[in-house]
Specification:
Layout: H1 9-20, H2 24-37, E1 42-48, E2 54-59, H3 66-72, H4 84-88, H5 99-106, E3 108-114, E4 121-125, E5 133-135, E6 140-146, H6 153-156, H7 162-179, E7 184-189, E8 192-197, H8 202-210, H9 212-216, E9 218-225, E10 228-235, E11 247-251, E12 254-255, H10 259-268, E13 281-287, E14 292-293, E15 304-305, H11 308-323, H12 332-338, E16 347-350, E17 353-356, H13 377-388, E18 418-423, E19 427-431, E20 435-440, H14 441-458, E21 464-474, H15 477-485, H16 487-492, E22 496-501, E23 504-511, H17 519-538, H18 543-554, H19 564-576, E24 590-594, H20 595-601
Parallel strand pairs: 1-7, 11-13
Antiparallel strand pairs: 1-2, 2-6, 3-4, 3-6, 4-5, 7-8, 9-10, 10-13, 11-12, 14-15, 16-17, 18-19, 19-20, 20-24, 21-23, 22-23
Helix pairs in contact: 1-5, 2-7, 7-8, 10-11, 13-19, 14-18, 14-19, 15-17, 17-18
């Protein structure tokens, strides 16, 4: 029978290293967190061969005393917590006291440090029995790791190519650089300087790391509720890409991969993203440390919230409100070109750490976002009348309603301006104070109807419009059975559909908002959803998808000619509708060409 024995300390550390030290980037992350916790204002990172051969971190932090150097290399030795209460309210990035011991067990580690006020520095090699020896260093700490996994060759075989490992290391540096814009950080690989970040405000650091393109295509997020706050940037839906690695989420300054927050982001972007495009964000969530457990995994990239549902709802509503911001004719790229996004964004101290502070940020205004403008009553009535004729052949135009009409004075025009004309019966051309607005009229009207349908369903106030002549279409027995089974649910959605024969159904009434759409097509799509998913799922997860389909069928169609008052009515309704910058499928509904852009196009002034 095997006997039970205590494992050697070295083997214990090597086992722990299996969780903490996954690859060179894992080592780099832990060492950088220690430097930041030490109060460093400048950090230099030197790598060789993707960090496998060498990782050297040089900082100007508080340093380590001579008699504590050896203790720093032992397991579960830390200066950051001393009680359970400290553990439950961790405000530092590192706290477990495992990193240095784990690294020293699988690599050649040395620490050179000079405590503030000490006569000189001391160096300790991470070898059994090693003693500190005098060293030269102006201030701070230098931690050097060489030959990762030199004593565990089986682990080394699992490492990827040098370029892959370096890419992971660079990503680790960028993530931590985002959380501390007040700290200067440089990165060198194989003697080549990759980047050198000077201290900056939060937006400038975000632009340095993620690019001006991201900042120019993003909307400012700023929300708070009790012990929760969230600040940062979220991509404008019309500028999103297919990249799946564009989510940078930090909780109390710690980069996390959290399923709760990720799901909240997907839900907030659900009906404004086109096809497979992904929401890109850079968000800083601040929460009372007592309400989040960061001691879930040794790598500390996972957290557990005390009230995960509250966190989900908070993030969801914060992003959703941001995506429903007012329409402004000035686009974010124009602001970036003028440099206004890199104004005074100071940092603030949270839990003992400097965090990006967007409190004084001038609100960004974005192309394709939503807004509020007082509509003209006559224009509303004109568009209401036009909606009744959607889908019908346009009546011949008289000279009293010309296709083109000079715009009103645009100096005080609303965000989307005043209509000039239609282009090929698809696009509306409008003029505002800055230039030319192009609107996809079908996409815009689709979003307007969709939002009205959602509001009506939520308030159980869907008005119905009886049809003078029922719209009759062929149906199989299963379709007829579905209609009979779900007659009440159909009525709640504003439909009256009844069998007219063994193979026919008739639509007697439709939602008033969709009265000018194709009643048969609307009914067929609705019945197909009922048959596939049932009314229970239809009333919850897939409800909005069904309403989006209904809105698409009911929206003004391409080639439908509108009068200028009708076009202006559509613009005013867009300005009053949430998420009016995207249709239900995530396509942009409008864009702007400024006078400067038009002048460049025609080489004016050159």
């Amino acid at each position: 029978m095997p006997t039970i024995a205590r494992l050697p300390d070295l083997l214990i550390s090597q086992i722990a290293a299996g969780e903490v030290v996954e690859r060179p980037a894992s080592v780099l992350k832990e060492l950088l967190e220690n430097s930041l916790d030490a109060g460093s204002k400048a950090i230099q990172v030197h790598l060789e061969e993707g960090g496998v051969k060498l990782i050297r971190i040089t900082d100007d932090g508080c340093g380590i005393a001579k008699d504590e150097l050896a203790l720093a290399l032992t397991r579960h030795a830390t200066s950051k917590i001393s009680s359970l209460d400290d553990l439950e309210r961790v405000g530092t990035l590192g706290f477990r006291g495992e990193a240095l011991a784990s690294v020293a067990s699988v690599a050649r580690l040395s620490i050179t440090s000079r405590e503030r006020g000490a006569g000189h520095a001391w160096k300790l090699r991470g070898e059994p029995g090693a003693e500190p020896e005098p060293a030269a260093l102006m201030a701070g700490t230098v931690v050097e790791m060489r030959d990762l996994y030199f004593n565990t060759p089986a682990r080394r075989k699992f490492l990827k190519s040098e370029s892959t490992e370096f890419a992971h290391c660079a990503d680790a540096v960028r993530r931590l650089a985002l959380t501390r814009p007040d700290v200067a950080i440089s990165l060198t690989h194989n003697g080549r300087n990759l980047f050198q970040l000077a201290p900056a405000d939060a937006p400038r650091r975000i632009a340095d790391i993620l690019g001006d393109d991201f900042l120019g295509a993003a909307r400012t997020v700023d929300a708070g509720a009790g012990p929760l706050s969230i600040i940062g940037f979220a991509i404008d839906p019309t500028r999103a890409t297919d990249a799946k690695d564009g989510q940078y989420v930090f909780v109390n300054g710690r980069f996390v991969r959290d399923k709760i927050i990720s799901h909240a982001l997907r839900e907030a972007y659900r009906d404004v993203l086109h096809s497979s495009r992904q929401p890109a964000v850079c968000l800083f969530v601040n929460i009372d440390p007592a309400l989040v457990d960061v001691n879930v995994h040794p790598a500390k990239t996972e957290v557990r919230f005390r009230d995960s549902r509250a966190m989900h709802q908070f993030v969801f509503h914060a992003i959703q409100r941001t995506l429903a911001a007012p329409v402004e004719a000035e686009s974010a790229p124009a602001l970036v070109e003028r440099g206004t996004v890199s104004g005074d964004y100071p940092t603030s101290t949270v839990n003992g750490q400097n965090r990006p502070n967007f409190e004084y940020a001038p609100p960004l205004r974005h192309q394709g976002s939503l807004g509020v403008a007082e509509p003209a009553a006559a224009a509303y009535l004109a568009f209401a009348r036009a909606a009744q004729d959607i889908g019908q052949s346009p009546a011949p135009r008289s000279e009293a309603t010309p296709q083109f009409q000079p715009a009103e004075n645009s100096s005080d025009a609303p965000p989307l301006g005043y209509a000039l004309a239609q282009l090929h019966g698809i696009y509306i051309l409008a003029q505002n104070a800055r230039g030319l607005i192009l609107i996809d009229m079908h996409a815009a009207h689709e979003r307007i109807l969709y939002e009205k349908l959602k509001t009506a369903v939520d308030n159980r106030q869907i008005a119905t419009q009886a049809l003078l002549i029922p719209a009759v279409f062929s149906a199989d027995p299963l379709d007829i059975a579905a209609v009979e089974e779900h007659a009440d649910a159909l009525a709640d959605l504003g439909f009256q559909i009844a069998p007219l024969g063994p193979n026919q159904l008739g639509v007697r009434a439709v939602p008033a908002l969709l009265q000018s759409g194709d009643p048969a097509a609307l009914a067929k799509s609705l019945i197909a959803e009922l048959r596939e998913h049932g009314i229970t799922q239809l009333a919850t997860a897939r409800r909005n998808e069904l309403l989006a389909t209904m809105a698409c069928h009911g929206a003004v169609r391409a080639r439908r000619l509108l009068t200028v008052p009708e076009m202006n009515a559509l613009l005013r309704q867009m300005e009053e509708t949430e998420r009016a910058g995207q249709c239900n499928h995530g396509r942009p509904t409008w864009t702007e060409l400024t006078m400067d852009q038009l002048d460049k196009l025609f080489l004016r002034g050159q």
